[in-house]
Amino acid sequence: MTGSSASFAIEIDEVWKTYSPDGAFVLRGVSLAVEARSFVALTGTSGSGKTTLLKLINRLIEPSRGTVRVDGADVAATNAVLLRRRIGYVFQGVGLFPHLTVAENIAITPTLLKWDKSAIAGRVDELLDLVQLPRTLKTRLPATLSGGQAQRVGLARALAARPRIVLMDEPFGAVDPITRDALGRDYRALHDALGLTTIMVSHDIMEAVLLADWVGVMETGELVEYGATADLLARPQHDSVRRLMQMPLEQAERVARLAGLS
Amino acid sequence: MEQLAPRLSDALSHLPDYLGAHILLSASALALGLALSLPLSLAALRWRNFAGVILGGAAVIQTIPSLALLALFYPLLLALSSATRSLTGTGFSALGFLPSLLALSLYSMLPILRNTVTGIMGVDPAVKEAALGAGMTPFQTLLRVELPLALPVIMAGIRTASVLVIGTATLSTPVGQTSLGNYIFSGLQTQNWVDVVVGCVAAALLALVVDRILAALESMARRRGERHRLAAAAIVLILCAGAVAADFRSQAGYIIGAKNFPEQYILATLIDQRLAAAGLHASMRSDLGSAVVFRALTAGDIDVYIDYTGTIWTNEMHRSDTPARDVVLDGVTGWVHDHYGARVLGPLGFENAYVLAMRRDKAREMGVSTIADLAPVAPQMTIGGDYEIFGRPEWQRLHRDYGLNFRDERQMQPLFMYKAVADGDVDVITAFSSDGRIAQYGLVTLADPKHVIPPYDAIVLLSPKRSNDRALIAALQPLIGKIGVEKMRQANLAVSRDDHQLSPAGAARVLWQNVNGGGSSE
């Protein structure tokens, strides 16, 4: 999985991470290459290192050892601020700026990139349509939005500067199951339509297998298994991964049985 | 009661000067405090170890009594001023504005620092992460996200600081800064309660108004309208311009100093009236501390004031012997000239010495007419004195040479001392020989057969640069040797008595009529 081929949007090579000089490693020699336009889900229990791995890509966290390449370029040699402006980032906290309107929130990265005003205004309208929010929300403050609306604004903000890579950390975590399902499917459609490369961290294995083309399973700082979603479901190599992958199948069966009985 | 209206209009006539100076000082102190606190807060946020040091330091400053903090800056700046004068040839005025500004700025820092640090630390970490994730630099995060979100907390700190500064600025009077405190300090001394109330109410109203203005500015800033921002800027500008104009008007010309008791107000006002009569413009800095005023004169921050030979003899020359009146006068005259180039224009003709005083009936009953008579009965007695006396060398000498020891020593406002001894709350007081209340309350002063207490001749002191100012000397010469102790006592009583009380200006006019009409003293 090493070496840099132009078709890989993201390459992570033998990355180790520790927060103290002689403390435990939260990432232990992780390597991963993601092809452009693919949708990757990273799953695993809390503390397995999946969020840390994600944040290495836009340099919110720096590795202790190893390299991370985006579009073939080592991120350590890239200006972190400029790097982040071309990578979309969505996370569970959403982190909408409470003092800015919906439109100003969405416009933040284009503003930082000094787009001209009319281009930004046009882009905001376009994005609201894209994430299926009414344009009348533009002047509202985040505090007045529902959880689902806030998540969609967060998504629009991440997509505003037309990134080709989007990083998502439990992006649909804070909403009800129906909204969550709709958000997931709508995003998957956007991912396909815009030709994005998406890496999504989710502890929900059902969400991971339903949305992603590729699934990586992490345990205690190691990427124990990585493969196409179908392969991982059909032929898991590790016992722990097998148990994990059986869960959505078993759950689906149980639900079907319940439906059949009623 | 019938005096209320003229007193109020007299008090209000000073309002533009006092209020203008007060606003200018407070606004400058707040601006400097902000300019220092904001970068320090950001440094504290950046280096968390530093935060403890900064906040701890600001908290320590806050615990220093404000009056002491103000007073400490004066000698500090004076040393700095003379250092720069010797290095660069030009010094700066260490009196008044500068020490007040620095002390008040330091005072304003704690609430601003603490609120800025807690306000920014309180910003939701998810929002900060979003800012970084969206591609903001740390500085952009601070400017566009952290500061706006912490603004209400920061503004609350600034508002606390502004109220604190406006209140504390009243204490800048003793270091020579004109402020609303002038009403309070001189009002307390002359029992002019109208002045005291006007000063307090004006300071309180100013604090309230400024607090409301800051609140309005905050909400304008949050609404972020261009027009609102312009209006806010206009308000600030108008306030500052008004304050600056008021302050400049009160400066220029001769500066007359006065310590913080009625006799000093009367004599300083008399000097002011004499200069005005001679066509000279002057302004007054009253309620200066005893040590401040002498240093201010020698540094040229004030041009003229009245001091007492004994004060300079003991406090400045550190002499412990007590020779005759004219020997002390000559000694002081020569010493201030040789050391500072300052000039003793001459004695006014009376002494304001420390004397021990007690009720006439009590003294007669106990057979006490001198301090020597008092010594054997003193252990059963209580003595009242002003805030200075028990720490002064004269007091130690009274102890040593007469074996004088009281059951209790009580410090009190000179104002209340005379009444306290008349009412029998204390048995003896350390009175002032020129005080009109000695006669008013029927007190006797005790003789000092061992000459322990030095003579305290009132003298006119001129600053080094005014020591040969002919116009000034010509205007003040008629006062030299013309004010006997009886005239001074009458004038002092006129401002302190309960009936037909005069303002210091009124008493000064009467005193001048006595001096001018009466010819020689008494």
Q: What can you tell me about this protein's structure?
A:
The complex is a heterodimer of chains A (262) and B (522). The termini of chain A are far apart. Chain A has two domains: 1-86 and 166-229, 3-Layer(aba) Sandwich (Rossmann fold), CATH 3.40.50.300; 95-163, no CATH class. In chain A, helix 7 links the parallel strand 7 and strand 8. Helix content of chain A is 40%, strand content 24%. In chain A, helix 5 (117-130) packs across helix 6 (147-159). Chain A has a six-stranded mixed sheet, with helices on both faces. A four-stranded antiparallel sheet of chain A has the order 2-1-4-5, covered by helices on one side. Chain A is α/β, with parallel strands linked by helices and 262 residues long. Chain B is α/β, with parallel strands linked by helices. Helices cover 63% and strands 10% of the residues of chain B. Chain B is built from 22 helices and ten strands. Chain B has helices at residues 4-13, 15-46, 48-63, 66-88, 97-121, 125-133, 138-168, 181-189, 193-223, 226-249, 262-277, 290-298, 309-316, 325-340, 360-366, 371-374, 393-402, 414-422, 437-440, 470-476, 485-496, 504-518; strands spanning 254-257, 282-285, 304-308, 343-351, 354-359, 382-385, 408-411, 428-432, 443-445, 457-462. At the A-B interface, helix 2 and helix 4 of A face helix 6 and helix 7 of B.
Quick description:
The complex is a heterodimer of chains A (262) and B (522). Chain A is of the alpha/beta class. Helix content of chain A is 40%, strand content 24%.
